[in-house]
Amino acid sequence: MSSRCALVSNIIPFSCVDGPGSRLTLFLQGCNLHCKSCHNPWTIGRCNDCGECVTPCPYQALSIQDGRVVWQEANCQQCDTCLKSCPQQATPMAQTLSVDDMLKHISRAAPFIEGITVSGGEATTQLPFIIELFTQLKNSPALKHLTCLVDSNGELGISGWEKLRPVCDGVMVDLKAWDENTHQALTERSNTRIKASIRWLAEQHLLAELRLLVIPDRTDYLPCIEPLCEFIRSLGEVPVRLNAFHAHGVYGEAKTWRSARAGDVEPLAQALQDRGIQHVILPALYL
Predict the structure, then answer these.
(1) What's the whole-number mean pLDDT along residues 124-150?
(2) Where do the 4Fe-4S ferredoxin-type domain residues begin and end (predicted)?
(3) Which of 3, 43, 95, 96 has the most beta carbons within 10 angstroms of its beta carbon?
(4) Distance CA 243, CA 215 (A)
(5) Do the strands 23-28 and 115-119 form a parallel or antiparallel pair, or are they unpaired?
(6) pLDDT score for 286
(7) Alpha-carbon distance 240 to 233, whole Å?
(8) How would you label 223-240 residue by residue, b for 16+ Cβ within 10 Å and e otherwise?
(9) pLDDT per position as a tens digit, 83-133
(10) Closest CA to 155 of 128, 124, 186
(11) Structure confidence by residue, pLDDT tens digits, 170-183
């Protein structure tokens, strides 16, 4: 039995877009980047019980009790009014769940899935929980067949990855931009540690996928194609997934940005392939 807990934003019992096959995806709350293009911006912050979301709720699903914001799930209609009202980019619907709670969710889904993916926010901001969850799965006769993946922004330090390595089957990492200044403008953070994480994970054969998010007129992959491709080639045979930015669900100035279309993504795919990177995955659809 484990009492290790995490703040959980959402659980999707069956997903086919968060790694290979059908997977249970666990979204943890909180992120150490502040990406303007984030498609789940309410997972960035953590509720500080300010109460700004309570009055706007049209279904009285939120209240203040003993100074804390309380969510009444039975009243909630999932209208997301609270998400738009939160100055912290958080959600009052996040739940504190233990490893044992999650094992129950996973056990119910286990006959129908091939593995689990822990995402976010940024999953590794709650690293001890992930390590304990994956350890329990690997030690369970009924669940040890499930693969354990992490979807990450790569901000974790190498010492953290070393702790996760024994129980993790792979990590999918986003590289938001190549140039330091471009990355800083898009995420408010450097990408130096992210590149180091990508290199280390590739050396350990744990880099399941490198992801590039194409934002028209914002990302710098094509202008920096030569150093980018040199970097990717140095990683070995790693799938490179090209994702297309869309403005649905984003906050702030990114709502005015143009969504990526095939004409934005396919030239990058061709440039990568022309430089020896053959395992390039295009978006399944464009919104």
Answers:
(1) 98
(2) 46-66, 67-96
(3) 43
(4) 9
(5) parallel
(6) 83
(7) 11
(8) eebeebbebbeebeebeb
(9) 989 999 999 999 999 999 999 999 999 999 999 999 999 999 999 999 999
(10) 124
(11) 999 999 999 999 99
99: left (phi over 0), alpha (psi -120 to 50) or beta: alpha
Q: What is the pLDDT of residue 1?
A: 61
Unique residue bearing structure tokens 């970097």: 231
DSSP-assigned letters across all residues of 86-138: -TTS--TT-EEEEHHHHHHHHHHHGGG-SEEEEESS-GGGGHHHHHHHHHHHH
- Tokens at residue 68, please? 């804390």
Cβ atoms of residues 284 and 245 within 8 Å = no
pLDDT (average), residues 238-267: 95
Contacts for 20 with CB less than 8 Å, ≥ 6 apart? 114, 115, 147
